[in-house]
Design a protein that fits this description.
57 strands, disordered N terminus, 53% strand, mainly beta, 4 domains
């Protein structure tokens, strides 16, 4: 068998030092191997990536002559030369650097004579081994000894004595139908240069099916984030086989994450977050880069004890890597700061935290006995009484929930209609107009917005047994819809079937009869904040005396499909509660959690409110 291969050796293969007397350790290859006449290439060595040109290679012909039955290796000749530089560190702190150069007798001509090597060949694992068949070859050796900066040099020529060094290298002989995709070099970090402990390089080659397609990899930095390929959402990295010249849309989501927030910074090809690429002829990787920000979360214990502030920024916001944030614990009336917990400790207040990862801080407060504190309305905490949606505001005649501290001395509930404007010694004014009250407690008040409150930002004041709060505020609009649900503004809506059951999955609400509504059937839902009604009604009164319609009829969506509204007005037996009778569209989607939404006054309620449809 004769196999002729064109190959090139590096000018030298370097051996780095190891902290053991008279032993060498391989630290990486600083050379290149040329296959089938390719005259240049790039390899990664100890100093990084090195580009080699043909002039820096020694090119030769490897001829396989016969199989040696004793060594079970093919024997051949290699025309060319190789230079090896190895370095040892002695236990005394000295180094010995030996440089071997095997060549022809004329040192300027590296291509004249043949060097004889043994070749171990294994096609199954794509590896081969190369070593001198004789331990004596023509050449030179130079030895430099360095002890604490004192150097001595010696050299010898013809012959150079080589220890048997077994060079095991992967050689790309891909099977039929496969192409070379890439390679990797692994060094034997614990090997020496003795016959019993040979220095070994292992080249691993990665093959791909030769389908005529290009392998395109979509990656993220850091790895593991979401990318999209032609509309499909996937976790990176992902590799695709695409035809060269075909076009594909690649993209990624931004931001991603919760405690660590990743914001898109750019694709490696410079494209927009979502853009179209044309598949190149060669395998390519497109990487989406992200910048990381870390959440600074904070809690008060107990929650009514106080709050936390951050400078710069705010608690429960994101910061870049390394940001220094000063956290201050602010006790409420009747409490004193005790200590920090979580990522801050101790009783020093304020303290700083460094944002190198998500951080969580707890401020512990202690109650002060006998403290007398006025009511306090929490910022941005006057919410729609059905949806509890922040930032939405309220509507005249609708119900609101007011959250704060010391709003009442005890819990009390309304027991008559019309509703009283004083309950348990507590009263509320909105734009100076007394509000009817349904419920009061230390942390929450449920009230009706008086019908006469003007639109715009309205001042809200709570009085608790003579103690008056600082004004809070709420935005009042012509309408501000919210749907009542079983659980605080999200999840299963209070939607009544024609038989009086709730339009929810069967058996899903303990103690109540439930079943899905059929498409085409009528259901009744309850809401608040649908605005003015006709005829008008007094503050705190129900509508049991006559039917009252909303001046504006809201739009209703069931699973995104418009539903017919048969009635929109006040629920007769309740104060501030609207009733909407609607026909479930025949084209509505079916399922246990079909979104139910109201649209009115530029507001669309949450798609997290649902009903069951069959």
């Amino acid at each position: 068998m004769v196999v002729c291969l064109w190959m090139a050796w590096p000018a030298r293969a370097q051996f780095g030092p190891k902290q053991t007397a008279f032993r060498n350790a391989v630290k990486g290859l600083t050379g290149a191997l040329d296959i089938h006449g390719v005259g240049s290439g790039t390899v990664t060595g100890p100093a990084g990536t090195i580009q080699y040109t043909t002039d820096e290679h020694v090119k030769g012909t490897l001829n396989l002559d016969h199989l040696d039955p004793l060594t079970l290796a093919y024997v051949g000749t290699l025309t060319g030369t190789i230079t090896i530089n190895e370095q040892s560190i002695l236990t005394a702190g000295c180094t010995i650097t030996n440089t071997y150069s095997a060549s022809t007798t004329a040192q300027t001509d590296f291509r004249g004579a043949a060097l004889e090597w043994n070749l171990g060949f294994d096609i199954g694992s794509d590896t081969w081994s190369l070593w001198p068949s004789s331990n004596s070859v023509n050449g030179t050796v130079t030895s430099v000894q360095d002890c604490a900066g004192q150097q001595s040099t010696s050299s010898a020529t013809n012959p150079v004595r080589f220890a048997p060094i077994n060079m095991t290298m992967g050689f790309p002989f891909p099977a039929s139908g496969y192409d070379l995709k890439g390679s990797q070099t692994v060094s034997c970090d614990g090997c020496g240069n003795a016959a019993s402990n040979p220095v070994t390089y292992t080249f691993t080659y990665d093959l791909k099916a030769n389908t005529g397609q290009t392998q395109v990899t979509l990656a993220t930095n850091p790895p593991g984030l979401l990318i999209s390929a032609d509309g499909a959402s996937l976790t990176a990295p992902q590799t695709f086989n695409w035809d060269p010249g075909s076009t594909h849309t690649i993209g990624t989501n931004s931001p991603q994450g919760t405690a660590t927030l990743y914001t898109f910074s750019g694709w490696s090809d410079g494209g927009a977050r979502v853009h179209t690429i044309t598949t190149p002829d060669s395998d390519t990787t497109y990487t989406a880069g992200f910048l990381a920000q870390y959440l600074l979360s904070g809690t008060a214990s107990p929650t009514e004890g106080g709050s936390l502030t951050a400078d710069p920024g705010a608690i429960n916001t994101y910061y870049g890597y390394g940001a220094q944030v000063k956290v201050t614990a602010v006790p409420n009336c009747g409490f004193t700061f005790a200590s920090f917990g979580g990522d801050l400790t101790g009783a020093t207040n304020p303290q700083s935290v460094t944002m190198t990862q998500p951080r969580s801080v707890t401020a512990n407060f202690s109650a002060v006995s006998g403290a007398v504190c006025p009511p306090s309305i929490s910022p941005n905490s006057i919410l729609n009484g059905a949806s509890n949606a922040r930032g939405q505001g309220a509507a005249a005649g609708g119900l609101v929930a007011i959250y704060g501290l010391n709003l009442a001395d005890a819990t009390a509930m309304a027991d008559r209609i019309p509703l009283s404007k004083s309950l348990g010694g507590v009263s509320v004014t909105m734009s100076g107009i007394p509000a009817p009250l349904l419920f009061v407690s230390k942390g929450q008040i449920n009230a009706q917005v008086p019908w006469g409150v003007p639109q715009g930002t309205v001042a809200v004041v709570v009085t608790n047994n003579g103690k008056v709060s600082s004004p809070g505020s709420v935005s009042v609009a012509g309408s501000s819809p919210g749907i009542f649900t079983v659980q605080y503004g999200v999840g299963q809506a209070i939607a009544i079937n024609v038989d009086g059951t709730i339009a929810a999955p069967a058996g899903s609400i303990p103690g109540l009869t439930t079943h899905p509504v059929k498409r085409g059937d009528i259901i009744t839902i309850y809401a608040t904040g649908l605005g003015a009604v006709s005829p008008a009604v007094g503050d705190g009164s129900d509508s049991i005396d006559q039917l009252r319609n909303t001046v504006v009829t809201p739009a209703v969506l069931v699973g995104g499909v418009s539903a017919g509204v048969q009635f929109s007005g006040l629920a007769p037996q309740f104060v501030g509660v609207n009733q909407v009778n609607l026909v479930v569209p025949t084209s509505a989607p079916v399922g246990d959690k079909v979104p139910l939404q109201l649209q009115m006054g530029g507001i669309t309620t949450s798609d997290q409110v649902t009903i069951a449809v069959e």
